[in-house]
Structure formats: C-alpha cells, structure tokens
Write a structure and sequence with these properties.
alpha+beta, 9 helices
Length: 216
C-alpha cells in the first residue's frame, strides 16, 4: 500500500530546501508519495511577523541555517535575489512581489502535473545552493523545470490563463496547513500528525515505518 503525506513548503524557506533531497530519496526508495502543497511564506502572509520577534531570533537563524546545511551536506548561500523583496529602508515587505507569487504558483502547477516534488528540489537547489547568481535571469528557471520533467513556458501560460485558480489553491493549502497543526514550513503531515521542520525528517520516516512503509 502506497503511503501518502501532505507537504507544506515555501520557496522562501531555506529549511524547505534542506529537507527536500531527503524527501526525494524517500520517495525514490520507498512506496510513499508526497502531496505537494506550496504556500506563501510568512513574510507575505504576515508581513509584520518578523518585526515583533526578539532580535536574537535573526542571529540564531542565520547561524543555524548554515550549520544545518553543513550537517546534511548541502551547499548553501542566501538567495540572490531573495524570493521575497524587502524594503531595506523600512525593513518591511511591500505588497507587490516580483518573484514569490510566480514561484509559488509554478509549484502549484508542477504539483498538478505530477512533478511537484521534483520541481521543488530542482528550483530550491537553484535558489539556495549558491552555484547560480541571479537565479531569476536567463534560462535558469526553465532549465531547472526541464530537469524536473516540466515545461516552464507551458506552466507560465497556464497560470496566466487562470491566475485565480492558482491563488485559490495556495490559499486552500494555507488553510489546510493550519488544520494540519502548524503554520511554518517545511511541514509534513502524515495521517493527521504534523512534523514541522527539516530536522523532523527522521521522525517522519520512523512513523511511516511503524505504519508499514515498504521499500520499492
């Protein structure tokens, strides 16, 4: 029996990037399938979220993300450009965002074409892996989509033809995410049990094994 789980995931989250290769490997080697459900990042959903945090939150996060990447053996550099645009003068997030809505809607389109996890893996490596500056320029995104078995131009055209559908899917994902038990990403929900954070992967796999996870 194929096991399934919901994966709530954001293109602005380096922790989402860090867990994705393990999820790809899990699906490659075991009879399990991710139900990929992209969401907008907290900076878009709650623009004042970070302004109310203790200053230590940012310093710890910056230290932890580099350490976590090193621990799981993945290259990491802060995205350039950041998928979410910030007004540096005011440290606020403007409503108009040139990247994150497109990326998130492409994630929806990829999931609907049955290539969601592969697309998340390829694009997050592009954004966060540090090998490609200006990931948003040229053919970088198209080539990443191609490696995932998708046609970027076709997906962009489908989104342009029905943007409301893709927005509605993201909003439904966000509502379901909270029902699943958390507001953050990456969030894996398996049989109603939430596993929040890239460092919960081993517990997720352990729980699946207790529910009969089988190798392919």
């Amino acid at each position: 029996m194929t096991l399934t789980y919901d994966l709530y995931w954001s293109f602005r989250s380096p922790y989402s990037y860090l867990v994705t290769p393990r999820l790809v490997e899990l699906e490659r080697d075991h009879d399990v399938t991710a139900n990929v459900r992209p969401v907008y990042p907290i900076a878009v959903r709650q623009p004042d979220f970070f302004t109310s945090n203790d200053p230590l939150w940012v310093s710890y996060f910056l230290r932890d993300i580099g350490r976590s990447a090193e621990f799981v053996g993945l290259p990491f550099r802060w995205a350039s450009p950041d998928p979410v645009k910030m007004d540096m003068a005011t440290r606020t997030y403007p409503k108009e965002q040139p990247h994150i809505h497109r990326l998130t809607h492409l994630g929806v389109a990829a999931a609907e074409r049955g290539r969601g996890l592969a697309f998340l893996d390829e694009v997050s490596r592009l954004i966060w892996g540090g090998a490609v500056p200006d990931w948003h320029l040229g053919d970088h995104l198209a080539e990443a989509a191609g490696r995932a078995g998708l046609d970027l131009a076709e997906m962009d055209a489908a989104i342009a033809a029905d943007p409301g559908h893709h927005v509605a899917v993201v909003e439904a994902n966000q509502a379901a995410q909270r029902v699943g038990g958390h507001y953050g990403v990456p969030l894996m929900v398996f049989e109603g049990e939430p596993f929040f954070g890239q460092d919960r992967f081993d517990q997720l796999k352990w729980r699946m094994e207790r529910k009969g996870l089988a190798r392919r």
